[in-house]
Amino acid sequence: MSMQLFYIDIQLFADKDEKTEKATQKRRRDSRQEGQVLQSREIKSALTILFAFFSLKFIGGYMYEQLVVFTRQTFIHYTIQTNLLAEDNIMPFAIEILLLLFKIMAPFFGVVVIVALVSSYMQVGFLFTTKPLKPKLEKINPLKGLKRMFSVNSLVELVKSIFKIVVAGLVGYYYILGQIPSIMQLLDQQVGQIVIFIANLVLNLALRMGVALVILGVVDYLFQWKKYEKDLMMTKHEVKEEHKQVDGNPQIKSKIRQKQRESSVRRMMTEVPKADVIITNPTHYAVAIKYDTEIADAPIVVAKGQDYVALRIKEIGKEHHIEIVENKPLARSLFDAAQIGEQIPPDLFQAVAEVLAFVYSMK
Fold first, then answer.
1. What burial class does residue 351 get, using C-beta atoms within 10 Å of its C-beta: 0-12 exposed, 13-18 middle, 19+ buried?
2. What is the pLDDT of residues 327-362, one digit of tens each?
3. Are residues 226 and 278 in the same domain?
4. Does some domain include residue 142?
5. Residue 49: other Cβ atoms inside 10 A
6. Of 174, 205, 233, which marks where a domain is finished?
7. Structural domain boundaries enclosing 338
8. For 85-127, what is each residue's pLDDT tens digit?
9. Phi then psi for 300, rounded to 5 degrees?
10. Which of 233, 259, 294 delimits the end of a domain?
11. pTM of the model
12. Distance CA 202, CA 199 (A)
């Protein structure tokens, strides 16, 4: 019994809508303009928290001093003014209090804003687009809203949040556990020393939690990168359609070239009546030559063509009583070597001059 081998193209069973192709540069640019960019909010918030508390190590003393000044002016200086709450005094008093609070908190909030902007820029770069702000009906569709609430992405975000809380809690638990001996010694300390110890304890705890959150943010960034690349993937049909948009539909481009050729031929035919002679290879080539010493030092090719175009050149030449000279080698050489509107090559001067002399003698 003979065996037959059957070759089956497995692509016939593939889903035509399956995204198997990497995103093109155009797809990435369009996605960026739509506001879909690669970024991790986790790493942004983690860096903001870390640097915010880290900055307190340097500006904490300044903030404490300014807070003492604020407290002194509030509870000592202003209490001796009997008319503080009068209509003419309440506004300057409120403005002065706000300025003092701003002076205290400005360095801290400045660090937070700068870190947030830098972390966003490092992930996204400079991007200004209003497309994400445009209202979309699908965003207010309650059914789609429920789908988003109970989607896989929502479940993943919930798991990430729980994991982040667990990690931060464990870091805090083990740090506090290690500080219990020092905490027990606070019973013999003065109030000022207790306050300083608690402030340092909270600050160090926050820094350790911040470092842990940054590590989780880096992991989340890698996860977001993988998800972003997967979402940008394209089907083979989308890639083909994009190439058509970028490079142009081949059929349309072919029609455009055809129209351009027809327009070029029409313009060329209007120059044929100005020629002095038409040199032909009877059935295939025709080259119309004009020689005018006021225009150029050598004869100029005003029209040329082969087959149907050559036939049309000869017909126009006959209609305008232009001499048609048959010279197969010269016609082919002129057709190959000379361009329309240009002078003939120097190596053909002699041959063309003999043809022109013959034409002039006939006239």
1. middle
2. 888 888 888 888 888 888 888 888 888 888 877 777
3. no
4. yes
5. 20
6. 233
7. 270-362
8. 666 667 777 787 788 888 888 888 888 889 888 888 887 777 6
9. -120, 140
10. 233
11. 0.52
12. 5
